[in-house]
Write a structure and sequence with these properties.
Layout (H helix, E strand, L loop, with lengths): L1 E6 L4 H12 L3 E7 L2 H4 L5 H5 L7 E2 L11 E4 L4 H13 L5 E4 L6 H10 L4 E4 L5 H17 L5 E8 L9 H14 L3 E4 L13 E8 L5 E8 L4 E8 L3 H14 L5 E3 L1 H4 L4
Parallel strand pairs: 1-2, 1-4, 2-3, 4-5, 5-6, 6-12, 7-9, 8-9
Antiparallel strand pairs: 7-10, 10-11
Bound molecules: nicotinamide-adenine-dinucleotide.
Nicotinamide-adenine-dinucleotide (NAD) binds next to α1.
Amino acid sequence: MVKIAISGILGRMGRTIARLADEDPNVEIVAGIENPDCAHSHSTVGEILGKELNAPIVSDLSEVIDKFDVLIEFSNSTEAALSHLRLLAADKNKKGMAIGTTGFSQDELNEIKELAKDVPVVLAPNMSIGVNLLFKLVQEAARALKDKGYDIEVVEMHHRFKKDAPSGTAVKLVDILKEETGIQNVVYGRHGDYPEGRPKDEIAVFALRGGDVVGEHTVIFAGLGERIELTHKAGSRDIFAKGAIEAAKWVKDKPAGLYDMMDVLDLK
Ligand code: NAD
């Protein structure tokens, strides 16, 4: 049994995680965290689920820190996520954390890495099984096609409400591509004249936004005469929520350290 608290509980992901965690006999929701402006609209997680469940919704994580084993972080604020991790690192009990929040700056990522020396943390911009398999397939394709004349482009599309661009998943795909190909020059969109055509030593990223698209990512390897496209399409937020719950179960009682979903899903 793992006792969880969910940060960003009133958001799209927070509500989905609450619904699925409530159906899981091995998980107990003990608290929800929200920003101070929203926290007062619901006083318990039960009010979100429409049932009797007396897990409080608070805006200050320290009020409930003794209740949970693992904090699932899906607030849309990198600042909030980081302040929650700082609290866990300062706590003697070394609770675990599964972070789904995206949009961290390099400085923030460096701090997460440092704090994870004291706390077991799963950090994953995309917690779905399919996307993590996509990461692995992209890694293999990039390795196989390296220096063989294939241009690489990354295209992603998300709903109109998304706050960061490109998506955290696209950033991770680019990191994998940079690592495997050695290409470091990344451009975001294209506009203007290209008298020499497309430079071969660049990776281009395109972030489309609109409607209610849950999340789509394609990596294109385009050569002369053929093209390989690896695509993942998310049809429901449930896939991320299920992954987040799996991550919470996995990270409980793990030694301190920074892990990702490839560790949780044993895809390394
Ligand atoms: P959302 O806007 O629907 O919900 C975010 C919630 O966080 C809101 O209810 C907001 O009030 C709350 N929040 C803001 N400040 C807070 C604070 N200080 N403490 C606690 N809660 C706070 O967004 P969403 O679609 O649910 O996505 C949330 C985050 O998760 C985004 O960063 C998104 O990119 C990311 N995401 C990750 C994955 C993944 O698999 N890792 C999947 C989907 C979304």
